Fold each of these.
Amino acid sequence: MLRLKKLLKTYKTGDQALKSIDLEIPDGQVLALIGPSGAGKSTMIRCINRLVEPTSGEVWLDDTDLTKLSSGELRQARRQMGMIFQEYALVERLTVMENVLSGRLGYVGFWRSFLRKYPQKDVDEAYRLLDRVGLLAMADKRADELSGGQRQRVGICRALIQDPKLLLVDEPTASLDPKTSRQIMRLICELCAERGLAAIINIHDVALAQMFVSRVVGLRFGAIEFDGTPQELTPDVLTTIYGEEDWEATIEKVEDEDEDEGAAA
């Protein structure tokens, strides 16, 4: 269970990125975080694992308040939070396998990681994960030889090999074409279901969020404007979050694509 209590982030400029956020995410739930640029979506994700320090408030992962941890304790706690980045954050010159295994750096000593001497069980798990996402044949390829969708799958494997309780996913489809975007969203949701993982997915594509998740939270100016199911994202709600637009067209697009997926199945 992840619980945010009165989470506030104010920058030195005086800008409030987050305004007293209260939110609970149970184990196994995948939540899409939507809202306009500057709404505080990325800040919220980064405050959870303290890549950005909250100004005040609490972040509870099970029975641990992450905001109260020392730097050493935080390093230990971050093992439980897998991060998937928009720009993949892979080491281009390393192989796919080496990038996946880098997710175990928090568990192995400095010299073992420096020499890339990982335990066999970690190597076996990396192969299993690569097989699960369809990249087993590319284990020895360099990261810079991969397509965007392949890189994102490597990033997913790297996060999962941490054996986390929570996934924090920042714009996983922003640089991908529509078909690959749907494949990546489907894969993340399937893996979370298989592992009972909670996840927060920061995503700009409202239609994509509606297609794949059971809960949507909408931010505007650092505050929660909506918290509900995809079906409750009416044109009026979307106008409140984003402003005036032809939201009926977005909703119709989701319904049409749902019908197409059902026919294909």
Amino acid sequence: MVTISLCMIVKNEEDVIGRCLESVKDLVDEINIVDTGSTDKTKQIVEQFTDRIFDFEWIQHFAAARNYSFQQATQEFVLWLDADDVFTAEDQKKFKTLKESFPANIDAVSMNYNLSFDDEGNVSSLLRRYRLVRRDKQFQWIGAVHEYLDVGGKLYDSDVAVSHLPLSHDHTRNISIYKQLVQSGKSLSPRDTFYYANELMDHDYHEDAIFYYEQFLTSKLGWVEDNIRACFKLADCYSNLNDKENNLTSILRSFEYDIPRPEACCRLGYHFMEQAKNYEAIFWYEQALVIIQKPNAPFQDKTFTTWLPHLQLCVLYDRLQQYELANAHNELASTFLPNDEKILYNKNYFDRILTKES
């Protein structure tokens, strides 16, 4: 059986760190916590799980802190988590199974990262990240913010997932770091340009965000997944600026990088739906349901392949007075969100209409 060091960086995480460590304490052989300046009870809580607590002076650089945390590891493999991450009971079992029957000669293991959940508790969006890496490979973290772990060698996609369950979020931290980098005259990498644009958009600086998204896309140096996401983000910026023409152009621009994604189809469906072009909208929402996504795709938002297109098709077929089809799509939407108020209202609505027709 392989041995594993957990390596984390934390600061003022008293509300969540205990929950995280409780979920992982029986899965790893060593816990290393690097504190970057906590002033709350974080360290006291961590002391209940490990005495391997290290201080690191915060220098506005996440990769530097994470690389330091990895340097503290002594076991064969290194696992990393954030303080507001947890392993559910089901994923703890999967992790133990992985650890007990670890594939030979693996250098890095990816796990799903469950980012959001619907009202029924089902995962609605997720991505893949390399979470478990061989220590002697000395893989390095890169990036002052939105850092990434640069891995290589023999890679393995596991069925284990980490769930992200934040209770709060520092909304100004990342954009402040990026602004300091820009003001210092430092040239942003294509990846940092993309993430800086994301931060600008999230803070409603839509025109500035458009500038950096365009800079990112015209560089032609971005990862294809980030290129596609940048197109959708651009569409959102233009939507907020009430520029429908460029909103549509940005959605269609994503086709330059891959076949239409379900999200693009739903966005196009909504574009036509707003104009009461019902048949055109139906076409695109139906496309969202039939496109086959790649297995273990790095980014997945299940909203665009489950209840959303069905609910919109319900509305569209109702407009066309094709009530049986509308009701069928509402029923399909209800298989994903059985307690949703809109879907329950629709059910009663169609019960009345179809009963009257019969």
Amino acid sequence: MKILCLNGPNLNRLGKREKEAYGTFTLAELETELMEFSGQNGITLECRQSNHEGILVDWIHEAAEDGTEGIVLNPGAYTHTSVAIRDAIASVEVPVIEVHISNIYKREEFRHHSYIAPVAAGQIAGFGKDGYKLGLQALLFRN
């Protein structure tokens, strides 16, 4: 199974930013762990990160054309602001699992709304980096 893991803005700062919310692991450490988990579960995983909304939209569109069977997406702050990413997800048939390291519903009020959730296959929030593995498993169980 081919899965794309996309991380949005500021997730390249994992391990350096708001450790109380996001932990001390880096994005590279997270990706290494996800690659190991994927290999053990028959998943071909590609991880990408961008701070730019349009690039994330392009990657979602590409996934619909290149045989990708699922996307695990942490849209970061774009969760609460991006109609463009929401519309990109709605425009493809690739299932998307929205993932958040922190529980966005226990944080500031503005983080409680997700433009992504209504078009995602599901949402996982508050389980730290394990949320990504749960997202991968959710995509495996869908097939």
Amino acid sequence: MATEETRVLLLIDDEPAQSRIVSTLAAREGWRSLTVESCEAALEALAGPEGHEIDAVLLDQRVAGDAACDFIRGIKAERAEIAVLMLTASTSPLLAVEAMRAGALDYLIKPVAPERLLSALRTASRVQTPRDELQPLAEKLPSVLEFDAMVGTDTHFRTALAKAATAARGHGHVLVEGESGTGKEMLLRAIQHASTRSKAPVQLVNCAGVAVQTLESLLFGHEKGAFAGAFNRQEGYFQQCDGGTILLDEIDQVDPVIQDRLADILETGIVRPTGAAHGFKIDIRVLAASDMPLANEVEEGRFSKALYEQISETRIILPPLRERAGDIPALTRYFLSKIGELEGFSHHSIADSGLSLLEAFDWPGNVRQLQTVLFRACVHEQREALTAHSFPHLSELLGDADRGESRARGLGVLLYQNDGNLRPLEEIEADIIRLAIGHYQGKMTEVARRLGIGRSTLYRKLSDLGIDNAA
């Protein structure tokens, strides 16, 4: 295998323009690309003099056609250590499932965003480490737009949602801050969907990894001949979305030059395309998201104070998943229900051994990472219930640490045995009664009231189940 500094990517693609773009992006991450135009040529390259240096394969599914999964399976059979990525125009979850079961590490949908491709290549560069299971696969599930579908009972999370729901009914700009993967983009979409501008034009822009001139043209537009390569006039999103909303994700990554232009536009309500002699009056609402606390960035001189003051009329902070661990069971069951609705998937439940494992992890990638781990587990698990064995990479990361504390964090009653089958109802009922007695400190009248039964019925059950009421 090549060293980290000389990683080699075998690109199977017969579109020269796309090959050049992918090769250029891959070079940013230290990859050297070998490009072939057919699967046959790819097999020859793998068997050739440079074959042992190839670390990853990126296959355009169109080249292989219906045989793509068989081709992936063949590569993995010969070279299990090679990371295989598939690029496709299909949005079918069934194809994603088939590709991953065949051995693909990731599945990229065209047109793939530069940062999404780079993220997949970063995953491929460390495919032999256990974290390869924990990378983003967010596009496999549809985006949720309603506030009611955002799962969680954590106080700080519910406060953030309540603030967002209030902001949705207003007209001011909104800033959502939080770590990557906490659901900022989903919240922006929910705000827009519930706003008075929900039927007006909307555009999402991910500001990370986009060249300054490209982002300027996307947002503000340009006139023909405004700069080298400006062969035609381009209308920017601010004009296209007049009367509507622009969602600016990762606004903390915006170049200072564009920050200043944004601040001026939001102050004056006038956008002037690059190279234009005059501007256009517009009515735009900006919903922005940042991975970084922007107040700190302003203090350090890395973010425009004027722009921050404009977009932070309402400021919402989403807590990381590690600070709302009590929501993991509900989030897990929600994601499993959504995954089970996808074509090619069956519905899965989760055993307590699996849930305890999920609760023990600190989730640096937050809710998006949890979704990804569950998606991968559902792809590969043939049994109905996901157990600890369904998350081998997660188990390897956590080791043999005692995870009994999950009961104290709210799991409470175990529903499944380790083989994935439900425990007998009598055992579950006994655990619930023990839990209630402990929770209400042995106050049997309160225990009976909370369980919705009479005191005499409670004492009869204690006797039948062999429970000491001092338990």
